[in-house]
Amino acid sequence: MMFNVKLFAILAEQIGHSEVQLTLTAPITAAAVKTALRAQYPQTASVLADCLVAINQTFVSEEQFAPSEVTEIALIPPVSGG
How many CB atoms are closer than 10 A to CB 33? Predict the structure, then answer.
């Protein structure tokens, strides 16, 4: 299935868009989202390792399965600043 994935901060800057479409097959996990994004956008590999994945506005662990109905996927890179 095709999903819109929201991107933030440096991840969006690296790709040049704040949202991309990824093809994912069930069951969807955070690891699967990162793998699909890395395959489509190899330049994101170093940032993806530290990104959090939120599915339906809930952070999920790498291997945690998403609910059967996925309405939103977002990747949030670590934030730094002072």
Answer: 26
The reported pLDDT for the residue numbered 26 is: 84
Q: What number of residues does the chain have?
A: 82
* Domain boundaries of the chain, sorted by first residue: 2-76
CATH 3.10.20.30 for domain 2-76: yes
Residues 21-76 have pLDDT tens digits of 999 988 899 999 999 999 999 999 999 999 999 999 999 999 988 888 889 999 99
* Tokens encoding 15: 């790709």
